[in-house]
Amino acid sequence: MSDSGSTFETPGTQVALEVASGGPSEGDGHRTAVPIPTARLDDPHLQEAARFPRRTEAIIALFLLVGIGGVAAFGAAYVQNAPSWVLALSMGVGLFAMGVGLTAWGKYLMPQGPFVEDRHPLANSRRDQEAMAAALVERTGVVVKRRKLLGGLLGGGMGIFGIVTLFPLLRSLGPLPGKTLFTTGWKSGTYLVDSTGTRIHKDQMSVGGILTVYPQGKENTDRGQAVDQTVLIRAQLTDLVTMKSRANWAPTGYVAYSKVCTHLGCPVGLYEQLLELLVCPCHQSMFNVRDGAVPVFGPAPRPLPQLPLYIDSTGFLRAQRGYNQPVGPGFWERTTEGNGTA
Amino acid sequence: MITTEGPRARTRRQVQQSHGKYGRVQVAVNELDERLGLARGGRIFLDKLFPDHWSFMLGEIALYSFVVLLATGVFLTLYFVPSQTIVTYHGVYKPLDGIKMSEAYASTVNISFAVRAGLLIRQMHHWAADVFIGSIVVHMARIFFTGAFRKPRELNWVIGLTMLILGILNGFLGYSLPDDLISGTGIRIAYSILESIPFVGSYLAFWLFGGEYPGNIIIERFYIIHVLIIPLVLLGMVGAHLGLLVRQKHTQFRGKGRTEHNVVGSPMFPTFMAKTTGFLLMVTGALALLGGLAQINPIWQFGPYEASKISYAVQPDLYMGFLDGALRIMPSWQWTGWGHTIPWEVLFPAIIFPGLLFNLCFAWPALERWFTGDNAMHNLLDRPRDRPKRTAAGAAVFALVFTLFCASATDVIANYFGVSLNATLWFFRAAVILVPIVTYYLTWRVCVEMLHGGRHMGKRKRAMVVSRTPEGEYVAAPSDMRPGDEHSELRPAPVPEQIDMEPLEPVGATTTVSSPGIRRVRR
After folding, report:
1. Most buried of B168, B216, B293, B377, CB within 10 angstroms?
2. B350 to chain A: nearest residue by CA?
3. What does the domain layout of chain B look like in residue ranges?
4. Higher pLDDT, A198 or B480
5. DSSP readout, B115-157?
6. Which residues of chain B are within 8 Å of residue A106 when distances are taken between CB atoms?
7. What's residue A31's pLDDT?
8. Which of B189, B277, B288 has its CB closest to that of A264?
9. So what's the pLDDT on residue A6?
10. Residues of chain A contacting residue B248, judged by C-beta atoms under 8 Å apart
11. Distance between CA B404 and CA B348 in Å, rounded?
């Protein structure tokens, strides 16, 4: 201990403790702890803790019996294909009771102690520590530094291999983003269809109605569902101008916004009809349908992109062109398009 | 060649006569010892002492729920199909009959309704995950507030914290696997969070998901990470955690006969072994009761995941709540410029904040050593009040996380109490700053008061003096405790309030009655 250089607390602490606990406490039922190896069979430390061992044993036996009954009942219930509450009750009560019994056995009927053992300092002597450091430093100096060329070559080779390994490891996991995040399935003239693939007629929806629409032919694809999903709302009967630059985007009050929240990409699936707000159920961002889905509440930073619509000669709703900006949450390569009132 | 002349079956007595007092066990020990040399170390291990305190079992809850997780998880792998291939369901659960869903979802519904004891095991697995993470947090709180992380145990603190993070991560991956409507939304959010990282975000998201969201491989990838990679790492870390615990021995609270240089407790074999095995059974039994009686994650009610569908009041599992709360109350501050976007509204609450939080936790042992200059070995535990600043800091962090957790229910709170969502949001935006500060101050104050005002603290009561009045009435009153009182037997035995690091003055030199022989440390 003295040569180890380890720094346990100063001896003062120990003195303090001994003074603190060495008071008139002989009759308080606490025994002075002894080391186990020296405890003799007649040592009170090795006696069981329970005051009435027979009674304790009987109670523990009762618990163990309940346990046996429980796990046996579990087996029977399993064979009978019983409902899960029966399985749970039999297995849970059985195991729990058995656990209580075993714990009580340990606590009341096994050597009560307390026992004490010394803590040996973990640290070795200063000399050992120095020897270790010396071996590391000196051998490195003598053996490795003398062959700088070999060391450099080996390090370089391993380094190159490490970097080269990264390519197949990472690159084969998936494609590069490229321009994928900037495109959707909406093109000029694409028909709006609902989830069954039916086109939307201009007389189909009444004011206040809402429908999730997809580009025709994409309604059953992953990408159509996840990226192209668009919410179509009929806000009024006459043409709606959500922003100055979007004069003819919402004919006869049909207005379409990307359904992918600009916060974290959840579907903006709630429509507060009276306030004309689209609400994202995930983090409660709210978008004003009338003025270009500008966020009025919550963490979403940008308006939902608006899809310009027109009604063709047969009365069906179609897209004038695709979205003018990436849909969904922000990412590093995203440009500033569509951030505000554009 | 076996002949009838070979050794015949012998009685126990004969075995004892030839092998010594302990018979065949002696033979086995001898044989093993000759090959492995474990007799001495084994004996020491059997004698290893475990100090007793109720709070020391919190880590055991975590350990045993991990055991339950492994066992129930193996069962689930036998029936779960990690595939996003779309199938039409025609199983025993009629409300979903004819509905298109992924094989992952269909097989999970199948486990819940068609596999014998499947629902019980599935819900036990889910409950065990919640209990695992919850008990780790409570266990770490115990470690933190009692100072058990101090030298020499910093490494075990780091391992434990890493296990907590891995546990949270694996919990998320696990509840994502059924591919139901709620967890699918969680995956979508995870994708967007990855995407928000500057420079590499979209690349990371594409590589993890095998392309643009949703891709068709994410369930398979989550599956192999969930059932193999993280459990393997966790298993190794559990081993290291326990190995270090054995090597460095348990900490213990201050008390009679307990010093920095010894361990007082009950032996590994048989006492501790019996108690801890019993506790394993109790934890398993409790999880079985929860798994069969308390419904959790009823995915058949949520329906299969479709990217354009969502349900109201989508909340993640318990342990992800604080991150969801952070995402909710963060203002919508994105940065754009030079043709690029940094979505701070996602990046800060979902990446930077948890990064700071966990790194603060990782660094705490080093920070505390640096601030206090205390580089000594510590095997005796503090009471939380002994270190007011540490306790206050820990309480503040818990208050912060708890406030964020509550903030993940803004919509439910607004709905339930009939208050405006706007007001709820602003309440939490203020609370997340104020609550930790107030908690810090209050905790610090309470600790200081307890530390310096505790005249009657401790288990020992003051002696009572019973006297009889002339009318015959008996009156009990606490005995006087005057300085220099000769009746030393009436003096309460001192309870160590705070142990001084300096050498102690001789007993008797200190005259304060409340703590003879003990000095308080100014902090």
Report:
1. B168
2. A264
3. 12-37, 50-321, 474-523
4. A198
5. STTHHHHHHHHHHHHHHHHHHHHHHHHHHHHTTTTSTT-HHHH
6. 270-275, 278
7. 62
8. B189
9. 37
10. 122
11. 14
A8 contacts B260? CB cut-off 8 A:
yes
Q: Answer whether B281 sits within 8 Å of A99, measured CB to CB.
A: yes
Indicate the range of A331-340, B2-11, B459-468 predicted with least confidence: B2-11
Name, of A18-27, B258-267, B506-515, the range with top average pLDDT.
Answer: B258-267
In this predicted structure, what is the pLDDT of residue A338?
A: 58
Residue B220 reports pLDDT greater than 80: yes
What are the E-state strand segments in A243-303?
254-258, 270-272, 277-279, 286-288, 294-297
Residues 299-358 of B with CB under 8 A from A: 306-314, 324, 327-334, 336-337, 339-343, 345-346
Contact B202 A122 (CB under 8 A): no
Split chain A (342 residues) into runs of 10 and give each run's mean pLDDT. 37 36 38 73 78 92 97 95 94 97 93 84 90 89 79 92 85 87 89 91 90 90 90 89 87 92 91 90 90 90 91 91 90 74 43
Task: Tell me the C-alpha distance between B48 and A49, whole Å.
Answer: 19
DSSP letter for each residue of B438-487: HHHHHHHHHHHHHHHH-TT-SSPPPPEEEEE-TTS-EEEEEPP--TT-S-
DSSP-derived 3-state class of residue A238: coil
Q: Residue B16 pLDDT more than 80? A: no
Cβ of A265 within 8 Å of Cβ of B152? The answer is no
B358 vs A246, which has greater pLDDT?
A: B358
Q: What is the ipTM of this complex?
A: 0.85
Rounded to 10°, the helix B118-145/A84-108 angle is 40
Q: Which residue of B has its CA nearest to A122?
A: B248
Instruction: Mean pLDDT check: name the lowest of B2-6, B58-62, B278-282, B434-438.
Output: B2-6
Chain B residue numbers with beta carbons less than 8 Å from the beta carbon of A329 are 192, 195-196, 343, 346
Chain B residues in contact with A210 by the CB 8 A cut-off are none
What percent of chain B stands above pLDDT 70? 86
Homologous superfamily of domain range B50-321: Cytochrome Bc1 Complex; Chain C (1.20.810.10)
Tell me which residue in A9, A281, A329 faces B196 most closely, judged by beta carbons.
A329
For residue B186, the chain A residue with the least C-alpha distance is A266
CA distance A244 to B216: 41
Contact (CB<8Å) A116/B263:
yes
Residue type, B243: G
Given an 8 Å threshold on Cβ–Cβ distance, is A174 in contact with B313? no
Contacts of B197 in chain A (CB under 8 A): 332
Tell me which chain A residue has its CA closest to the CA of residue B190: A264
